[in-house]
Write a structure and sequence with these properties.
Strand content: 25-35%
Largest sheet: 6 strands, mixed
CATH superfamily: P-loop containing nucleotide triphosphate hydrolases
Number of domains: 1
Radius of gyration: 18 Å
Strand order of the largest sheet: 6-7-8-3-9-10
Distance between the termini: 28 Å
CATH topology: Rossmann fold
CATH class: Alpha Beta
Shape: globular
Structural class: alpha/beta
Number of helices: 9
Order of helices and strands: EEEHEEHEHHHHEHEHEEH
Number of strands: 10
Length: 243
């Protein structure tokens, strides 16, 4: 279980006029085996919150508790060893390494061909076409995203964080991505957090968290939160830009 307690984060203003608050006193809980989507307007603090959970950014105030351990001061590597994984908006390309190499690194052990096939099949990729293919510029954005998800599955992380996975991919790849995430929701034992403002991703969440202007505006089930985001209540303060 992940607990954020009174998380605040500020940065220096661009014009040098002082500090700018990005997150204000955010407290929330992500239960075990949950599929959570964090949404809200652009610039509201969603991606910053994800980076704080992973340790890419450090909060100015507050605590982060993961499985009963205070990880507030742990670095990225230490958090990864505890079972937290992070997928960037734009996955990194590794010249000279094949998809099989990356899956082996993610799993932390040598994988046989059948195991590699299983991980690739889980994200809708044919092992014969991808297993020994070098992860270079020939990969599309959608292919990269799915390989990255296969790596997360191979790692078996307790908590997987995806920062706007729909960024930079075409409609066809997005449809495949939805199928992959739906399968993860139904079959993965660990918890998943997705940062997104795409309606299709919101619709498969078990829990929605709305962050706007640095504040936690709403937390609840998909049934509780989504109608307000998509329905007639479009004047609610966290709606604009959320979907």
């Amino acid at each position: 279980m992940l607990e954020l307690k009174n998380i605040s984060f500020t940065v220096d203003s661009v014009n040098g006029s002082g500090k700018k608050e990005i997150l204000r006193n955010v407290s929330l809980t992500v239960e075990d085996h949950s599929f959570v989507v964090i949404t809200g307007p652009n610039g509201g603090g969603k991606s910053t919150l994800a980076k704080i959970i992973m340790g890419i950014e450090q909060p100015n105030d507050g605590r982060i508790i993961f499985d009963g351990t205070d990880i507030t001061n742990l670095n990225i590597t230490e958090r990864a060893k505890l079972g937290i994984g992070y997928a960037f908006q734009q996955p990194v390309r590794f010249r000279g390494l094949t998809v099989r190499d990356l899956l082996t690194q993610a799993a932390g052990r040598k994988l046989n061909y059948e195991e590699t096939c299983d991980y690739l099949a889980a994200v809708g990729l044919c092992a014969a076409d991808y297993c020994d293919r070098e992860l270079n510029s020939s990969f599309s954005g959608g292919e990269l995203k799915r390989v990255e998800i296969a790596m997360v599955i191979a790692r078996g992380t307790k908590l997987s964080i995806f920062d706007e996975p729909e960024a930079g991919i075409d409609l066809w790849s997005f449809q495949n991505l939805i199928r992959v995430f739906t399968k993860m929701r139904d079959e993965t034992k660990g918890s998943v957090i997705i940062i997104s403002h795409q309606e299709r991703i919101l619709e498969i969440a078990n829990k929605l968290i709305v962050v706007a202007d640095g504040n936690l505006e709403a937390v609840g089930s998909r049934e509780e939160i989504l109608p307000d985001l998509l329905g007639e209540s479009r004047n609610c303060k966290y709606y604009k830009g959320a979907v």
